């Protein structure tokens, strides 16, 4: 900072404004004129020498320790101001902090007094009298209501470096006697009041100064295991287990043994992928048979991690900070090896495990290219609902949803049943307008949405605001309750699930999953992978899948509704030309969604009416139109049972 002329006092104030206006400068000048100590409660300690000088204070000194890069705990300043005003004990109560409001005195031949800090705005206020400068300095130094101790520059506090959590030390007559971590205002207030009362009693001869335990100024290390770099395994639940519907049972056993399924992908392996993953057995005589087995059915590929043990923390400061309970014996994981566990459970023949770090990385990149990004984001789903009165403004609400970076996965208008309405309006059941609300919800449509984003459940609830319009004043005016208050009932016109568990329950209730049978015909075998990619992008789950050379009997079960038609024999002939990929697809409204994705039966018509559909892109003619799907729930159930029940029944 440039040197100041004789008789000037520079006052620099931290601000969020990068270009302060003239009015701001006038305001800061007025702050100075009204008295510096009325506004700045804190004496700054930003060097070891000032720290040692501070320890000479008599009485209680409260020290806010923080890093220059993150600033002091401004949330605590109202408490310190309150304590200063209410106790009125300037002789025995002092406060200290660090760099953001940084007063210090530079003595040179000009007897210059300066205030400096890291802020971006400053002004110079002339003070001609050297006595006045000394008076200001003395006033600042003696008031000393609070000082800040900068951990970055003070050797004594080096162990607190790079810790963004605020720490408050309590010094009595130069001895540190207590420490509180975190901005716990009630605890700090209680500690200050207790120690001030003790000082008063000691001064009055009513008590002897207690012997305080030594508080080390080095960071107390928690006795916790050092976090190890997370290691993953790849597990493959093979096609026979999927067909026999053992996959869910296997996954449940894996999680019960203390492992975490971080990601899952259902896929049918390519020949190359099988050769890569199982290269260690490629020289065995039956490998080609195994290769055919792995490439003709659906497998589940899992990323598995060892569940992290609960941190065990031993705190020496039990009065000042809560500690977490150590894990009980039952919580200690008994299985370090997934492979050994699967063998012990007699299910290793259904599930192969890869632990080699290089191979795990390679296969993660193949099957889960976005795994690291997705793991960091922790995406969640929640149910959102716009009540009937709000539908006229649904475009405005949808814009807010988009602006807040939510993705809408599913949506539907629905007239709620009485049971559904009471479930969603349970929080109003004690209100005198509850019956009127249920009547409205069951007579007019609501808009239900499934939203996706990071921290989705909590963020949506925060946007909603209070449950009733009367409580809007307690929230920001930007809450959705405030923005969309309408109708003759004093309720929030939007709903959101209360927790992740409630969200999944709500979603399954309003968007129940449905199965449909899907078939990729033989003439598009080479395009199977591309079609499967389209299926996944549309949000379908591959519940079952296998390659089949369909027999006339099986074709008859799939096309049972048209077996009397003249062209039926042509369908049988087309499907007998090679293997078809038969699938059970699952999602809400799956039958309609799959038929929409397929497009019209005639590929030429599909190119005109639905050019992005599968039949428009891959169909040749009405018979060789690439794909087939069930027409209704009954045919979906019959077809699926006919083709997959036999496999599921084999034990």
Question: How would you sum up this structure, described in words?
Answer:
The chain is of the alpha+beta class and 651 residues long. It contains 26 helices and 22 strands. The strands form 5 sheets. Strands 2, 3, 4, 8, 9 and 10 form a 6-stranded mixed beta sheet that branches. Helix 4 runs parallel beside helix 6 (185-203). The N and C termini lie far apart (82 Å). Residues 1-40, 98-148, 219-227 and 309-333 have low confidence and may be disordered.
Strands, helices and their partners?
Blueprint: E1 8-13, H1 22-34, H2 36-39, E2 42-45, H3 48-54, E3 60-66, H4 77-87, E4 93-97, E5 103-105, E6 113-115, E7 121-126, H5 130-143, E8 146-150, E9 167-172, E10 175-181, H6 185-203, E11 232-237, H7 239-243, H8 247-256, E12 259-267, H9 271-277, H10 287-294, E13 299-306, H11 338-344, E14 351-354, H12 357-367, H13 371-377, E15 379-386, H14 394-403, E16 407-414, H15 418-424, H16 434-443, E17 446-454, H17 456-464, H18 480-483, E18 494-496, H19 500-510, E19 513-520, H20 528-537, E20 541-548, H21 552-558, H22 568-575, E21 580-588, H23 590-598, H24 603-609, H25 614-618, E22 627-629, H26 633-649
Parallel strand pairs: 1-6, 2-4, 2-8, 3-4, 3-8
Antiparallel strand pairs: 1-7, 3-9, 5-6, 9-10, 11-13, 11-14, 12-13, 15-17, 15-18, 16-17, 19-21, 19-22, 20-21
Helix pairs in contact: 4-6
């Amino acid at each position: 900072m440039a040197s100041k002329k004789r008789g000037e006092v520079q006052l620099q104030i931290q601000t969020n404004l990068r270009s302060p206006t003239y009015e701001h400068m006038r305001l800061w000048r007025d702050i100075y004129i009204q008295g510096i100590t009325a506004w700045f409660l804190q004496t700054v300690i930003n060097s070891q020498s000032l720290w040692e000088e501070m320890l000479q204070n008599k009485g209680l000194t409260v020290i806010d320790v923080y890093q220059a890069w993150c600033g002091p705990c401004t949330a605590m300043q109202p408490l310190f101001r309150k304590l200063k005003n209410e106790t009125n004990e300037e002789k025995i109560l002092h406060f200290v902090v660090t760099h953001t409001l940084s007063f210090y005195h530079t003595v040179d031949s000009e007897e210059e007094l300066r205030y400096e800090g890291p802020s971006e705005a400053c002004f110079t206020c002339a003070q001609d009298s050297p006595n006045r400068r000394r008076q200001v300095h003395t006033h600042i130094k003696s008031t000393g209501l609070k000082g800040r101790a900068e951990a970055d520059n003070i050797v004594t506090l080096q162990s607190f470096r790079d810790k963004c959590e605020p720490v408050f030390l309590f010094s009595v007559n130069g001895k540190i006697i207590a420490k509180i971590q975190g901005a716990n205002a009630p605890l700090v207030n209680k500690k200050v009041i207790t120690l001030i009362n003790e000082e008063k009693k000691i001064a009055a001869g009513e008590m002897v100064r207690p012997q305080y335990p030594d508080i080390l100024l080095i960071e107390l290390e928690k006795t916790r295991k050092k976090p190890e770099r997370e290691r993953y395994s790849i597990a493959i639940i093979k096609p026979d287990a999927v067909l026999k519907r053992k996959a869910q049972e296997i996954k449940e056993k894996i999680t019960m043994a203390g492992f975490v399924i971080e990601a899952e992908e259902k896929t049918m392996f390519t020949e190359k992928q099988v050769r890569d993953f199982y290269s260690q057995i490629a020289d065995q005589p039956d490998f080609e048979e195994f290769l055919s087995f792995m490439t003709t059915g659906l497998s589940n590929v899992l990323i598995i991690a060892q569940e992290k043990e609960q941190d065990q923390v031993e705190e020496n400061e039990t009065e000042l900070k809560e500690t977490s309970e150590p894990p009980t014996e039952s919580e200690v994981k008994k299985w370090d090896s997934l492979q050994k566990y699967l063998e012990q459970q007699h299910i290793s023949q259904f599930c192969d495990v890869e632990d080699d770090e290089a191979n795990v990385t390679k296969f993660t990149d193949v099957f889960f290219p976005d795994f690291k990004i997705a793991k960091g984001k922790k995406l969640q789903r929640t149910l959102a609902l716009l009540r009937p009165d709000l539908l006229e403004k649904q475009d405005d609400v949808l814009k807010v949803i988009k602006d807040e970076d939510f993705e809408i996965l599913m949506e539907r208008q629905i007239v709620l049943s009485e049971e559904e309405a009471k479930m969603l309006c349970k929080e109003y059941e004690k209100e005198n307008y509850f019956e009127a609300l249920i009547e409205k919800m069951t007579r007019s449509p609501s808009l239900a949405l499934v939203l996706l984003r990071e921290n989705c459940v909590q963020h949506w609830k925060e946007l909603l605001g209070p449950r009733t319009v009367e409580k809007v004043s307690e929230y920001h005016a930007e809450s959705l309750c405030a923005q969309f208050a309408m109708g003759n009932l004093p309720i929030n016109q939007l709903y959101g699930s209360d927790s992740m568990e409630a969200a999944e329950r709500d979603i399954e209730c309003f968007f129940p999953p449905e199965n449909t049978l899907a078939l990729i015909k033989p003439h598009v075998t080479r395009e199977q992978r591309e079609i499967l990619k389209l299926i996944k992008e549309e949000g379908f789950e591959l519940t079952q899948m296998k390659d089949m050379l369909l027999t006339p009997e099986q074709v008859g079960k799939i096309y049972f509704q048209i077996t009397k038609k003249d062209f039926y024999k042509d369908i049988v002939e087309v499907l007998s030309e090679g293997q078809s990929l038969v699938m059970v697809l699952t999602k809400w409204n799956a039958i309609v969604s799959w038929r929409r994705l397929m497009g019209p039966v005639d590929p030429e018509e599909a190119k005109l009416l639905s050019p992005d559909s599968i039949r428009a892109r891959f169909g040749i003619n009405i018979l060789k139109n690439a794909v087939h799907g069930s027409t209704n729930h009954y045919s979906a159930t019959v077809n699926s049972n006919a083709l997959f029940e036999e496999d599921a029944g084999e034990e």
